[in-house]
Amino acid sequence: MISNEDQAVIDEMIARERTMKERQKIIEAMTHKRRVFKRRLVIVCAAVLTIFLVILYDCLMAYEGWPMMGIVKINILVAIVMFLLSLAIFQKLIKQRPLKNIVQRYHRQLDKRYTDALSASNRWLQFYYHQREISQIIPQILYYLEANPALETIDDAIAYIDNQTASSETYQNNLNAFRNYVKQFNTILLSTADEQGQPSSRQISFVTLNDVPNIWYFGTDPEAPKVSELDLGRAAIYTLPTSEGLRITSNRLKVYRTQYSFSDVAAAYQAQVPGYMESLSKAEKEREIIFAIELESARIDSRLQNKEITFIK
Q1: How buried is 287 (Cβ within 10 angstroms: 0-12 exposed, 13-18 middle, 19+ buried)?
Q2: Which pTM does this prediction carry?
Q3: How far apart are CA 106 and CA 35, in angstroms?
Q4: Which of these, 40, 48, 37, lies nearest to 82 by C-alpha position?
Q5: How large is the C-alpha radius of gyration of the chain?
Q6: Letter string b/e over residues 84-111, b meaning 16 or more CB atoms within 10 A of that residue's CB
Q7: One Pfam family for this entry, by name (predicted)?
Q8: Are strands 187-193 and 289-295 parallel, antiparallel or unpaired?
Q9: Which residues 6+ apart lie within 8 Å of 141 measured at CB?
């Protein structure tokens, strides 16, 4: 029998799920409009270029003695070929300025149009129960409480879910998605605390090795004050948001010294953090000690999605 206290929480969960479904509809509408706008922009640009090229072609060609139908057929064929080539060209150019700026401006206008609707659901993005953030498993909680009579409380449902093993396919999909998110960043804000609990934050550049997305490496001077704080292991990380509002945060992580020297991560820094290698002298590179940040879980937030990924050891 579900208690009144649990029922009140369940009612809030149901309200959240309804709100998040409405939010998802808005997000899907925004995503569709973005996709359609890019497609139409490419088509319009390709059509304009095709018209210009066909007119230029007509001006340069000498059709004396050609039958009218022959000229029309040739022009139609040339227009089709020009249009297909123009489409291919503008599908590449859409990622470059000035077309990229046009797309980004449309994205900003779209974000502004839907800001109020999305902001109204922001309070439901996270859902805490006994100091635990459970927003990702609320659908499962509601399902199991209804489908499994043996589960009489929310705590029973959460314990049951925690004992379930996620499918390897789902985990790999989440891992691949997170890998793509991480590639958009090469700096983070690292927050630590000293022995007295005094917090401090600093921006650091990091790299990943061997395509493992949840272990981030960074170097530091062994004499730096933050080294003693890092050795305590009290840390949290967050990234500055991208132009799309994407950011990664985590306070469930391990920070520890590695056996790597700077030469072991130099190639990764060269590839992933342009300019970092040139900012250090040879002596500084030799002194650097390499720390690792191993994420046990991470939260990914943006205007269009909010989810948490837990990493399997």
Answers
A1: middle
A2: 0.63
A3: 11
A4: 48
A5: 27
A6: eebbeebeebbeeeebeeebeeebeebe
A7: Putative_PNPOx_2
A8: unpaired
A9: 13, 134, 154, 157, 158, 161
Cβ neighbours of residue 89 under 8 Å, at least 6 residues apart? 46, 49
> In the numeric block, which tokens belong to residue 162?
């925690």
Q: How many residues does the chain have?
A: 313
Query: 243 with 101: CB under 8 angstroms?
Result: no
**What tens digit of pLDDT does each residue of 97-128 get?**
899 999 999 988 988 888 888 888 888 888 88
pLDDT in tens, 247-296: 899 988 999 999 999 999 999 999 999 998 888 888 888 899 999 999 98
Residues 6+ apart with CB under 8 A from 57: 75, 78, 82
